[in-house]
Amino acid sequence: MTPTIAILLIITFVLSTVGLLLLIWSIANNQFSHGQEAARSIFSPGEEGHSEDPARPADPSFTGENTAQAAAINARWTADQSSRTAVLTWLSSSIFWLVLGSFFGLVSSIKMHLPEFLAASEFLTFGRIRPAHLNAVTYGWASMAGIGVALFLIPRLFKTSLAGGKYAVFGAVIWNIGLILGLTAIIIGLSDGKEWLEFPWQIDILFVVGGGLCAIPLLLTAANRQVEHLYVSSWYLMAALVWFPILFLIANLPFTFPGASGATVNWWFAHNVLGLWVTPIGIGIAYYMIPKILGRPIISYQLSLIGFWSLALFYSQVGIHHIIGGPIPTWLVTLSIVHSVMMSIPVITVAINHHGTMMGNFGRLKDSPTLRFVWIGALMYTVASLQGSMEALRSVNVITHFTHYTIAHAHLGMYAFLSFILFGAIYFIMPRLTNWEWPWRGLISLHFWLVSVGIVIYVVSLSIAGWKQGVALLDAAMPFMDIVRMTMPALQARTVGGALMTLGHLVFAFHFVAMLMRRGIGNQQPTLFRPAIKEFTQ
Amino acid sequence: MKGALAIMVGAALILLLAMLTLVVMPYLQMSAEQVPPDLKPYTETQQRGRQLYIANGCIYCHSQQPRDPGFASGDRDRGWGRPSVPGDYAYDQPHLLGTMRTGPDLFNVGARLPSIDWQLLHLYNPRAVYQDSIMPSYTFLFRHVDEAEAGDKVVYLQAAFGPESGQIVATDDALALAEYLLALDHTYPAPTLPKADNPKE
User: Fold this and answer.
1) Number of separate domains in chain A
2) How many domains in chain B?
């Protein structure tokens, strides 16, 4: 134990020294000075103060007040079109997996209170459908939609056309093949057996290759960039695209980590999928969408950079809070708990920026579908993250560990935060890529209310039941079967919530396909020429 | 490009640091842990049963890691056994620690419920044992035959849960899974466990 503590002390010392030197260097080199200028880099000249929200019925887009400004808007339209094939490929695939994954989830939920439901077939047993749900929504929906949105934002953030888009399309094909093979493997019983890593490692290679192929357009486009400042969204997106392949490769190394050390690697990875993959994507998108729709820059650019680096530092070490009380060294658990609590720093800095920028503009939530989805997602990021920091504390974890409370928390993060932001982003992106209006605005509202009511029922019922379950499990006076009976109403409520969410996804998918098939009203010209008469067609 | 590269390299370096603390150091420390002398490696049948445990996702409802009674006394009081230590998992590849207790912890299920007949009956239909159990039945691990042949393992069912005619016999898969469950017995003393942690007894 002593050498371990010595190493930890040395690392801490080196780290603080490096941090101090970095700070001195930043101040000496004026790294903090061009803050608000960088925050404005997402607007084209003269655009600040004008909203951009293609999913919104009224409110014509800013088209520039003089030739130079109009040319900048036109250049952005060209940049949007350059990513079209790649983005549409990733997004369409993601929506397919969302619908399939939702049905896996719904069936798993029903099985929890009706255990004989579809139990006769080994291919449909709970223990196979549940991991199929997790993998389909994580690697199918969230990851593919996240990459799709990132591919759309990269040319916009760098103010140039997407270079090497065909590599991303090829990457999507490989990624989809990986999903088909991986999910099939789980269903026929060839799981690797570790949560979040169920796909057999041979198939995982496809994801590393598919994801790596997306790095090519990222690097090529970054090399061509026309902006001086890298806006904070691009920091998050670039980091996420670096982190995920490394993580996924290490965690899937076969025959390397046996027994209890396998568990630490497993959870180091699983939480990093959230912390270093989907979270930076979600935050990065929100950092773009909120100021863009409001037409005002984020309130503190410096704070956003502190948020970024502290997220990188703290989030990468929280994973072991999933094994508190488990058969692993205590220092390791403590390290992760400390980092989990420290996560409140990036969370609060991001919250100040996201919600502070919203201040005084909450009325816009009524008419902007994108803003409503994205801001609620950002709010749920704050809530879910602070809840997560609390859950890592030993005194809370002893109750919530091993219960449905954790499941509710996971859905608050992956769904109410991430998926909401992705929904909002897709509503923003599609009209820009297809030059077409969303055919039925009522369907956007329907989608919003179905998934919102669904996730509220889901999280509230499971949180309450999970907490009661956790308290009861600690007290052996309550027989185990009584606990099972006690959680039953919440398990049924989850099926109701899950069914509403699934229904919402069907509405969303239908609308998306209708958009692709060009139903409804077209927008024949580039957006910048959108005729004012559009306002009256609704 | 310089700025973009700096961010990506910085991000990768931070991840490497996390890998050092959360992957490499625990691995070095835990692989040096003593393997309890009484821990037996899995037999071939048990290992096959373990694969069935993985394939059918038992881990999504059952943990295999009783916690220290000083931390969570319920684990001991429910009879799930002493706190587990890294050495207990020396032969586990992959680990099956689990994160849910929709069902009870199984680290010592073999000691708690040592009858193979009970295990098979419970796998065939959990509700034959616990009326309100929400565990799925694993009927696909069993065969329905008119008359059991010599060497077949018959599942003894109450009339209400059995077929109208004929008998239910366990497949090799069901037997292997039951054998694995019976092998989950870690009641031997763990040499690396800190002493004097049971003040109540």
Assistant:
1) 1
2) 1
Per-residue pLDDT tens over the stretch B34-62:
889 899 999 999 999 999 999 999 999 99
Q: Kindly state the tokens that stand for A112.
A: 């929890």
Residue-level pLDDT at A60: 63
User: Six-digit token pair at A464?
Assistant: 């309450």
Does residue B107 lie within any of the structural domains? Answer: yes
- Domain assignment of residue A228, yes or no: yes
Q: What range defines the domain where residue A324 resides?
A: 42-532
pTM: 0.92
Hey, are the CB atoms on B72 and A398 less than 8 Å from each other? yes
Is the pLDDT assigned to residue A56 strictly greater than 80?
no
- Provide the chain B residues 63-82 that lie in CB contact (below 8 A) with chain A: 63, 65, 67-68, 71-74, 77-78
Please answer yes or no on whether B132 and A485 come within 8 Å at the CB atom: yes
A29 within domain boundaries: no
- Minimal-distance CA residue of chain A relative to B74: A474
Judge whether B194 lies within some domain.
no
Rounded to the nearest 5 degrees, what angle is found at the Cα of A357, between the Cα atoms of A355 and A361? 90
Domain that holds residue B64: 44-183
Amino acid in position A484:
V
Cα dist. A149→A139, A375, B7 in Å?
15, 16, 20
Instruction: Calculate what percentage of chain A has a pLDDT beyond 90.
Output: 66
Backbone torsions φ then ψ of A61, nearest 5 degrees = -70, 155
Instruction: Please indicate, yes or no, if residue A426 is contained in any of the structural domains.
Output: yes
pLDDT at residue A26 greater than cutoff 80? no
Cβ within 8 Å of residue B188, ≥6 positions away: B36, B38, B39
- CATH number of B148's domain: 1.10.760.10
pLDDT in tens, A401-415: 999 999 999 999 999
Cβ–Cβ below 8 Å for B67 and A11: no
Give the other-Cβ count within 10 Å of A180's Cβ. 12
CA angle A480, B64, B191 (to 5 degrees): 120
Q: Is residue B27 part of a domain?
A: no
Residue A473's CATH number: 1.20.210.10
Q: Per the structure block, which two tokens stand in for A298?
A: 């984020």
User: Which of A190, A395, A474 would best serve as a mutation to test chain B binding (most B beta carbons within 10 A)?
Assistant: A474
Q: Is residue A28 part of a domain?
A: no
User: CB under 8 Å to A321, separation ≥6 — which residues?
Assistant: A271, A333, A336, A337, A340, A391, A392, A397
Q: How far apart are CA A124 and CA B56, in angstroms?
A: 10
Does residue B33 belong to any structural domain of this protein?
no
Find the range with the poorest average confidence among A76-80, A84-88, A107-111, A371-375.
A76-80
Task: Tell me: pLDDT of A16 over 80.
Answer: no
pLDDT given for residue A30 in this prediction: 62
Minimum mean pLDDT among A297-306, A462-471, B120-129: which range? A297-306
B154 touches A: beta carbon within 8 Å: no
CB of B1 within 8 Å of any CB in chain A? yes
Is the complex ipTM more than 0.90?
yes
For the residues of A371-438, what is the DSSP string, one character each?
HHHHHHHHHHHHHHHHHHHHHTSHHHHHHHTBSHHHHHHHHIIIIIIIIHHHHHHHHHHHHHHHTB--
Instruction: Say yes or no for a CB contact (<8 Å) between A120 and B140.
Output: yes
